[in-house]
């Protein structure tokens, strides 16, 4: 039971955070459009930190649909 908890906390949860961030980046439009590429690079190079930064800062940079 303890090993399953460790696997969930240290592998599955960070993977899901990165996956959610990347999917959200790729499905969103940004203003300016270069921000999408910048956020993808940040999340790929710094997976956990980049994903958390995107979810806190980057989501506010998306272009809102009218």
Automatic annotation (TrEMBL):
Membrane association type: Multi-pass membrane protein
InterPro entries: CLS_N
Bilayer-crossing regions: 37-57
Keyword annotations of the record: Cell membrane, Membrane, Transmembrane, Transmembrane helix
Name the record gives this protein: Cardiolipin synthase N-terminal domain-containing protein
Domain Cardiolipin synthase N-terminal: 17-59
This protein's record includes keyword Ligase: no
Compartments where found: Cell membrane
